[in-house]
Design goal:
Number of helices: 8
Largest sheet: 7 strands, mixed
Helix content: 10-25%
Bound molecules: N-oxalylglycine, manganese (II) ion
Order of helices and strands: EEHEHEHEEHHEHHEEEEHEEEE
Structural class: alpha+beta
Strand content: 15-25%
Distance between the termini: 37 Å
Strand order of the largest sheet: 1-2-3-13-5-15-4
Shape: globular
Radius of gyration: 18 Å
């Protein structure tokens, strides 16, 4: 299979044609996809009407799928445990109200973040399959954090260089008022410290590494100042020249690199069904400071 790669934005994001996720990838195609992914950070595969099993199988070309540690809110699919439900419809096909705990927790993804950064080895990447897409919002926006690091003003740069930030899964519930993790969930995911400026294990490039929905502390800073710095960094990052906005079509599959991007979704009408299934690739190494 020969693939074609067409950029969708100058900063990041490219469309890949010539892949059919119903079938195993041959090694040459797998390498070509990986190379395009490392170059463009977010890749879009249009027209992939796949099953969850095919989604998981495709994910395994690039690493080990994560199994979400939190089982209390119904965000982890019962049928295929590697699937995380980014949906306002449950597995019994009920439309969920915005006040449902899972929906309150998911609302955090409207703020800039990178997936599973609260793990000791944060996620490498995620693959999101748009099954029923929104037409009233639900645009997923991505930022190239290499470029953000390159352009970061000196004042901000000095505050992050050589520093670590804490990433805590429990921060989510404090942020959006979702149910706090159970004792067991908390014990499974204690807070971790990661460098704020990291070197990418594949490309060798340097990027800013923050995740505003999980960062609750920065080394050597007061709590208020830490939160303000994360907000200032997120605001600087969220500029159009660093951003690809993905407007979904049914059965797009997006694959992004969690090590050098952040993302956030725009709100949509909660009366409209939105069904998206995600796999998350576990990190293969700890975060290395640049
Ligand atoms: C995610 C996420 C994006 C979206 O799937 O990791 O943050 O479009 N959501 O809902
Ligand atoms: Mn996310």
């Amino acid at each position: 299979m020969a693939i074609t790669v067409v950029p969708r934005h100058p900063a990041l994001g490219a469309e890949i044609r010539g892949v059919d996720m119903h079938w195993p990838l041959d090694e040459a195609t797998r390498r070509a996809v990986h190379e395009a992914w490392m170059e463009h950070l977010v890749v879009v595969f249009p027209d992939q009407d796949i099953s969850d099993a095919e989604h998981v199988a495709f994910t395994r070309n690039f690493g080990e799928p994560e199994i979400f540690h939190q089982t209390s809110l119904g965000l982890r699919a019962d049928r295929v445990k590697e699937i995380f439900l980014v949906s306002n419809v449950d597995e019994r096909n009920n439309l969920l109200k915005p006040s449902t705990p899972s929906q309150v927790q998911l609302s955090s993804s409207r703020q800039w973040h990178t997936d599973s950064s609260y793990r000791p080895m944060p996620s490498m990447g995620s693959l999101l399959h748009g099954i029923e897409i929104s037409r009233t919002g639900g645009i997923t926006q991505f930022i190239n954090m290499y470029k953000v690091w390159d352009d970061l003003p000196d004042g901000l740069r000095r505050q992050v260089e050589g520093r670590r930030a804490r990433h805590d899964f429990a921060m989510l519930s404090r942020l959006v008022g979702s149910p706090p993790p159970t004792g067991e969930e908390r014990a499974a995911m204690p807070p971790v410290w990661h460098p704020m400026v990291r070197r990418h294990p594949v490309t060798g490039r340097t990027s800013l590494f923050i995740s505003s929905i999980y960062n609750d502390a920065i080394e050597g800073m007061e709590e208020g100042a830490s939160r303000r710095l994360i907000e200032d960094l997120s605001d600087f990052a969220a500029q159009p020249q660093y951003m690809y906005r993905h407007v979904w079509e049914p059965h797009d599959v997006l694959m992004w690199d969690n090590r050098c991007t952040v993302h956030a979704v725009t709100p949509h009408d909660p009366a409209e069904r939105r069904v998206m299934h995600r796999t998350t690739i576990v990190g293969a190494e700890p975060v290395v400071a640049a």
